[in-house]
Amino acid sequence: MFGTGQFPKFKEEQFEVAGTEYNLIATAEIPVTNFYADEILDASQLPQNLSLTHHVFGPRRAYGKDTKGLFRQHQFYKVELS
User: Fold this and answer.
1) pLDDT of residue 66
2) For residues 60 and 14, what is the distance between their CA atoms, to the nearest angstrom?
3) 34 to each of 47, 55, 62, 66, how far by Cα in Å?
4) CA torsion 33→6→61→69, rounded to 10°?
5) pLDDT, one tens digit for every residue, the chain (82 residues)
6) What gap in Å lies between CA 68 and CA 56, rounded to an integer?
7) Any idea what the Cα angle at residue 78 is, between residues 74 and 82, rounded to 5°?
8) CB atoms closer than 10 angstroms to residue 80
9) In this structure, are residues 67 and 75 in contact, taking their beta carbons and an 8 Å threshold?
10) Full-prediction pTM beyond 0.70?
């Protein structure tokens, strides 16, 4: 979550799984970016064409006079292409 820019900026908007260090992720980009984490790819290996189908959770802050301060939660499948 830190290497993809999700933390610390969006930490307050993530849902943690109680009793663990796991979070429900809101984008499939997080696991895709970790395929080559801490590696430098040679130019001959590029471009990398990747796709990932992932179950994601989309927490969003609710705005409005009746919902201020609440979080909305939805889940869906997403295909991420890179």
Assistant:
1) 63
2) 9
3) 16, 16, 30, 39
4) 160
5) 777 767 778 777 777 778 888 877 767 777 777 788 888 999 999 998 888 787 777 655 566 666 666 666 677 777 777 6
6) 24
7) 140
8) 17
9) no
10) no
